[in-house]
Amino acid sequence: MQTTLFERLKMNSKHFHPVVQFNPAKEKLIQFDFTEKNIALQKINLADTEMFCKYINDLLQNAQSKFGIGGYNELRTLYSRSTLFNNDKDQNSVEEEPRRLHLGIDIWGNEGTEIFAPMNGTIHSFAFNDNFGDYGATIILKHQLEDISFYTLYGHLSIADLQNIKKGDCISHSQQFAHFGNSEENGHWPPHLHFQVIQDIENYKGDYPGVCKFSEREKYLLNCPDPEVILDLRKYIAGCI
After folding, report:
1. How do residues 118-145 score in pLDDT, each as one tens digit?
2. How far is CA 192 from CA 107, 112, 147, 184, 186, in A?
3. What's the pTM value of the predicted model, to 2 decimals?
4. Residue 222: which CATH number?
5. For labelling, which of 172, 186, 201, 234 has a CA lying 20 to 30 Å from the CA of 63?
6. Count of domains for the chain
């Protein structure tokens, strides 16, 4: 029986370097809830980036947490903040089913937070996806793990991280290669990293859907396994807000 990407990642999980620096003995993580169950989200204008940033910062400060973790396979209401997730080809049309299911894990924290490569890889592609609600500065790495190749996507970066890099550049295990961007360069979001594992990148370059329609859930989750197998952060989560 053929080994799946998730199984292969799990077998090698002890060898991955942390994607962000976190000391569980001194620092704290909190789980963020961006589903319809979070009534607080209904009380703020999520399309107002400044207001959204204050909401996230207040959550982190009140919980005395270094990072907030945003869920994988989470059906989120917050994507209504941008028409990007409505799949509208015609601005006057109404898409029957918008994209709302999150395919990666978000790590919300301070602008400038350093990002490290979990394993050896090469730069597959990068882009500045400069739409409201988009990834902003984005880097995709290609990896080879024994007989399986796959990709990791890093979204909402600093635009400076795209300078002086090129396709095919080697990125070493534990190498610091990117940072959390500010809202002007990260797609107009509060500072955070969108981290996603992708088996088949198809023809995408510098981009890949990080949110899908719920009706396409099975297809996308199969191609984008839970990044927690690399991050290994959930066991440190102190609570959910």
Report:
1. 999 999 999 999 999 999 999 999 999 9
2. 5, 9, 32, 13, 8
3. 0.94
4. 2.70.70.10
5. 186
6. 1
